[in-house]
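User: If you would, consider this record:
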Amino acid sequence: MENTQNMLLLDNDRIVKEGVSVFEVTDMPAYNVPYVSPHYIISVCKSGSLKVEYDASPAVFVPHDLAIIYPQHTLIAYSATPDYHATLIAVSAELYAKMGGLNFSNKRFAYEQLPHFHLTNSQYDDIMVFADTLHRITLYGLKSREDTLVSFTYILSQIIDYFHDTFFGSSADSIKWLSHRFYNAVIEHCHQHRDVKFYADLFCLSPKHFSSVVKQQTGHTAGYWIQHYLVIRAKQTLAYEPAVTVQSVADRFGFPDQASFCRYFKRETGLSPSEYRQSL
């Protein structure tokens, strides 16, 4: 496995070409800078620790922590100890989309809310065997290489879900196909559509039934998740793109005018966009 301090930012071409890439990481490419990855990433901390913020929520990764980072979510690294070392498995957006047809993980909402959990020693050893095997598959010129990577990564995701259940308990929500596909739809369409009916129509369900199913599977209504994701992206834009005006942010997220965006943002956060920027 390649050892790189430049991590994913400088290896996007490799990830796209290989479909699945395995990296050994001993440092982050930048600190206090938001990074939105187009890839699906499995990260396993081997030593040291890393302080980060995931979608505006602070987290600390310590040895034997496994984290699932889904595409289009923001990660900000704040600090790493000198002995920090992690293995990253990066799945390209194209291969990730193909695995989506297999419903490769039924716990997306669980990982969205809390992206990491702790592995036992034996679980850690098993995951590292998978990481090494995936790396070896990328080295071979197999005729069915892509199908093999999809199948093997699917198996790995099922094992990770099983380990997740043993850590949190099997009573944790079983997040099924609807919630997984719904959140993908929110990421794709939230800039233009914030009404539950639009998403319910995508799945040929009534808005009431659709929202009820999403709440049963995730603990929150469909409307909550739409607002949650939109506010996170708006906050990121306001915080890390200071040159972008509030009017431009309103345009970017599909609001008819600045005033309606300001009302929406203040209702959800308690602060106007300008007040939020001043509070940073």
Q: What stands out?
A: The two ends are 39 Å apart (CA to CA). The mean pLDDT is 83.
